[in-house]
Amino acid sequence: MIRGWLAVAVFAGLVAMLAFGLTRDPSRVSSPLIGLPVPAFQAERLASADEHFDSTALRGEWSLLNVWASWCTTCLEEHELLMRLSQQLALYGINHRDTRDEARNWLQVYGNPYRASAFDEHGEVGIELGVYKVPETFLLDPDGVIRYKHVGALDEEAYQEQILARIREGRP
Amino acid sequence: MIPELGHFALVLACVLAGLQAFLPGWGTQRGNPTWMRSASSLALGQGLLVLLAYLALTWAFIEHDFSVRYVANNSNTELPLAYRISGVWGGHEGSLLLWSLVLSGWTVAVVALSRRLPMLFRARVLAVLGFVSLGFLAFMLATSNPFDRLIPAAMQGRDLNPLLQDPGLVIHPPMLYMGYVGFAVAFAFAIAALWGGQLHAAWARWTRPWVTAAWMFLTLGIGLGSWWAYHELGWGGWWFWDPVENASFMPWLVGTALIHSLAVTEKRNTFKRWTVLLALLAFSLSLLGTFLVRSGVLVSVHAFANDPARGVYILGFLALVVGGGLILYAIRAHRIESPGHFELLSRETLLLFNNVFLLIAAFAILLGTLYPLIVDVLGLPSMSVGPPYFNLVFLPLMLPLLFLAAVGPVSRWKKTRARELLRRLQVPLVLALAIGTAVPWAAFGSTSALVLAGTMLGVWCISGPLVALWRQFSRMRRGTSAGYSLRHLPRHMVGMTCAHAGLGVIALGIAFTTAFSMERELVMNEGDSVAFAEHEFVFRGVQEVDGPNYRAQQGHLSVYRDGEPIVDLHPEKRTYLVQSSPMTEAAIYSTVWRDVYAALGVVQPGGGWGVRLYVKPFIQWLWGGALLMAFGGLLALSDRRYRYRRKRRRT
User: Fold this and answer.
1) CA-wise closest residue to B79 among B170, B174, B149, B165
2) Can you give the residue ranges of every domain in chain A?
3) A124 to chain B: which residues are within 8 Å by CB?
4) In terms of C-beta density within 10 A (0-12 exposed, 13-18 middle, 19 or more buried), how is residue B413 classed?
5) Which of A40, B260, B428, B505 is deepest in the core (most CB within 10 A)?
């Protein structure tokens, strides 16, 4: 019964894949975008539909690009750290699959660490960036090249060891 | 004390489930009728115990027993009673308990309604259900015990997630689970048939009402979920292609295919292996959905607390149940023969196409949902696919399905003639062309390819099955009065007509609401008025209101149409006191023709309030159509042939 065994084989493949998915520490998924310039995209700004957020403008200094949403509970975990980092680093947001209202309100309630946020209502920018789980954070060097990607809530340790270390190395 | 009682009941239920899984099955191998018969009593006992555990947890919620960790995490003294009762399934542990309760409910229903089945077959069905139940009860006890104590007890609970404090959510999960778990019955019937290596001619007739019932609940559950998202998420959307939504939609698509192929198997004694495979798949996708929601491998709006151990367990269970089922299928399916023959143009072929389209759609959604994982495994750039992908692949698959939904009902089994089909479909064709081209122009002054296709196919899909029903009615009326014929129309046929018409209604709703919805974001001060989409909105200001467990700023908008006041809307911005999360409560005025939808934004720095307004024509048709579909399922269930069987049993 070929059809039956075919179904078994497909299913076995599926299980193997799901098992593999479970073993992945989502925060260490490496991105093939690393070492490449951040994909060019234009989106509306969260603050106003008339202004544009242009990814090609993200250069000239080290910056963090953080994908967040008001519906994302993990985003609150890293929020405090982001507020602190916003004092010392250029931090930009991509508001992923959200509504303007909810997102702005969220920033008003908890505080806004971002210099600016792109409003990615339908997740199209997310697709460009290969967003896998919200939150995600990209480290961009002064040339706008992606140096590191962190999936999940950013913590002090990851900041010190992955982000700050890279910035120190990179600086002449 | 009562939580311990609940815990104990759960442990006992788990033991009984184990016995139910192995004793009757072993009995069928040994030919021991006592063991086989034990299945019913074990199932009843297990059902009672799970109910007891469920009531114990409900009691802990009602009485604010914050020494139970789960209650402390999901309730609060300020939480209204209705949400304390529904809060039982507001988190992972409790919703698993609901899952088990629903499964027990289905099992008890099988015990009660299947007395006429052969003993051997019945014992096997109950054994499979017992095994599934064992898996979930053991899972709960091992990793997710809702009765875990919190020592010392919390003084106050952390409150139910505010998103879940909505009437829609009170009934959404139970309906969804009724559907999900209901497919377990079809799965058990399929396994029992494969186990015995033969498919009785009556197998499809036994299985059909169970599948229809599960499908009906799943339809309601998905409809409610979409309605809830529309009301509660406050962004005017109704479907997001979120992994969790997809997880419920895939079993629905396969379940719909199963209903159709069961019809062929019952009436024409063919498609048998295919039907069995579909029965396995429908439940497999239900389990897969459970895995996706609870393992955290995919990102979703619906966040359950994630724990890798849970993911591993469910995956293992999934592999065991589905893998086992498929292997059994591979070994045994060749024994099942499908003797029926049919011509190329026949109802069988049309239903085969229906199945193909539904399965491709389910597969495409599965692919899209798992895409982030697939690319990760293959080492490709990790990425997600969004609504654009789903709309792109899903819509083209739905168009031929809508087309077939009118052709199938007027076609004949075995062999049908093209000329005959064309003659019967004259009226629907004329209606579809006339309404499809004229109405959007007349009502909205414009049209597009999507609107044209949606309206025509919607009308086509409503009128086609009605033609079939009319033919039946005319035939019956020749022998008797119109009233008698009307009352005695075969219920399964009326049900099918309703379900297909419901699909048509949904198509109309989607076409109009997608094409003609208007949206406006603006800043309003007290006394401001704005004309928008043939309505005038006057902003009367914002006041503070206190709810039981939240504080809200409530806006007040008066809405006029043609100068006449039609409604006062009160959208709210709520802050729930315990979780301090802000929530938007949209105010919606619904009529058959359109919804007027207002959401309150944030205070502007320069004064005034952000306000979001939508006018969404025909949007209620989406849920109306889903209700009509579910009602069709109910009608089909009430068909006389099922009642007849029950009556005969009593004598």
Assistant:
1) B165
2) 41-170
3) 386, 388
4) middle
5) B505
> A132 and B384: CB-CB below 8 Å?
yes
CA nearest to B273, candidates B356, B348, B330, B215: B330
Q: Among the listed ranges B248-257, B301-310, B438-447, B509-518, which one has the minimum average pLDDT value?
A: B301-310
ipTM of the complex model: 0.73
Quote the CA–CA distance of A45 and B466 in Å, as a whole number. 51
Residue B363, C-beta contacts closer than 8 angstroms, at least 6 positions apart: none
Count the neighbouring beta carbons within 10 Å of the beta carbon of residue B149: 16
How many other CB atoms sit within 10 Å of the CB of residue B262? 24
With tokens 């004949």, the residue in question is: B412
Q: How far is CA B57 from the centre of its chain?
A: 25
The enclosing H or E element of B616 equals strand B609-617
Per CB-CB distance under 8 Å, the chain B contacts of A100 are 521, 601
Tokens of B488: 């005695």
Question: Hunting for tokens 């048998």 — which residue is that?
Answer: B272
Q: Which two tokens stand for residue B183?
A: 């497919």
For residue B537, the cross-strand partners are B530, B559
Whether B406 and B458 have beta carbons less than 8 Å apart is answered as no
In B, residues 320-379, which contact A (CB 8 Å cutoff)?
322-323, 326-327, 329-331, 333-334, 370, 372-374, 376-377
pLDDT beyond 90 at B13: yes
Q: Which amino acid is at B218?
A: L
CB neighbour list of residue B197: distance below 8 Å, 6 or more residues apart: B332, B335, B336
Q: What digits encode the pLDDT tens for the residues B238-285?
A: 888 877 788 899 999 999 999 999 998 888 888 888 899 999 999 999
Instruction: Spell out which residues of chain A touch residue B370, defining contact as CB-CB under 8 Å.
Output: 14, 17
Q: Which two tokens stand for residue B396?
A: 């083209």
- Between CA B224 and CA B178 the distance in angstroms is 13
Question: Average pLDDT of B633-642?
Answer: 85
Q: pLDDT digits over B494-525, tens only?
A: 999 999 999 999 999 999 988 888 888 888 98
The pLDDT of residue B645 is 53
Q: d(Cα A32, Cα A140) in Å, to the nearest integer?
A: 14
Nearest in space to B100 (alpha carbons), one of B174, B150, B30, B3: B174
Q: Is the pLDDT of residue A25 over 60?
A: no
**Binary contact (A104, B601; C-beta < 8 A):** yes
- Whether residue A140 lies within 8 A of chain B, CB to CB, comes out as no
Interatomic CA distance for residues B68 and B87, integer angstroms: 14
Q: How far apart are CA B459 and CA B636, in angstroms?
A: 22
pLDDT bucket at B315, cuts 50 / 70 / 90? confident
Contact present, B87 and B64 (Cβ < 8 Å):
no
- Domain A41-170 maps to which CATH number in 3.90.230.10, 3.30.70.360, 3.30.830.10, 3.40.30.10? 3.40.30.10
Residue with tokens 């196409």: B353
Alpha carbon distance B358, B353 (integer Å): 8
Helix, strand, coil % over all residues of chain A, rounded to 5: 40, 20, 35
Q: Any idea where the domains of chain B sit in the sequence?
A: 1-165, 171-366, 523-618
Q: How confident is the model at residue B449 (pLDDT cuts 50, 70, 90)?
A: confident
- Decide: B633 and B495 in contact? Cβ < 8 Å: yes
